[in-house]
């Protein structure tokens, strides 16, 4: 009984912390902005809050979704959408993260949206990240594998090259669907265990040289501000 209570308390503080940082991050959104909409459960609170402010009439923005999840949620929340073709420069993106270090480097892609998330983030003038404090790590790779999006044709050759770099790749399999997860771009994802990563920038470059690797979940030098939710407040990390 006590064990369950503790577990429920942990679940609920994290959800509350995620909501708190989402509301804080939405304060960066200004009227008339074109905003990149992130993916995952924390970014979902951001999209819902932007939608709420728009329905209330206190904010008008256009959104560029980073995944089919973000797109559907934005539509349901009443946020009008646009594309990078129409707006190649975004005012802001707010997104989640799977791991963040003190330099603001990150691992992303737990939801399989890493490629579009990186494109949307690289198009944005400001990148704000929202997560609960359990995502803060000393070194990337400590608690989360590095997702790598791979062209299906290159699965065997690319995973062999990833092993040569010292990684242990695992093809991501679906829940609610047998077989491999297929991304919004029609590709596979391998989650690669590299252990604690000493030089994430170099690893990112080496992975990107492998033929068939579309993108990696290593987001280096991309975040400007990170809000981390604690049980009793918020930590703000800034570049
Ligand atoms: C999806 C992502 C998410 O932002 C990341 O997985 C964090 O998700 P959550 O807020 O649900 O923990 O990178 O590809």
Q: What labels would you give this structure?
A:
globular, Alpha-Beta Plaits, alpha/beta, binds ribulose-5-phosphate, 6-stranded mixed β-sheet, 239 residues, 13 strands, 4-stranded antiparallel β-sheet, 2 domains, Rossmann fold, 33% helix
Order of helices and strands: HEHEHEEEHEEHEEHEEEE
**Stretches with pLDDT under 50, minimum 5 residues:** none
Annotated CATH topology of the largest domain: Rossmann fold
Which small-molecule ligands are present, each listed once? Answer: ribulose-5-phosphate
Strand order of the largest sheet: 2-1-3-6-12-13
In percent, how much strand structure appears in the residues? 15-25%
What is the makeup of the main sheet? 6 strands, mixed
Name given to the CATH architecture of the largest domain: 3-Layer(aba) Sandwich
Q: Based on DSSP secondary structure assignment, what is the total number of beta strands?
A: 13
Structural class: alpha/beta
The count of helical stretches stands at: 6
What helical percentage do the residues reach?
A: 25-40%
Q: What is the average of the pLDDT values? A: 96
The number of distinct structural domains comes to: 2
Overall 3D form: globular
Query: Taking Cα atoms only, what radius of gyration do you get, to the nearest Å?
Result: 18 Å
CATH class division of the largest domain: Alpha Beta
Termini separation comes to: 44 Å
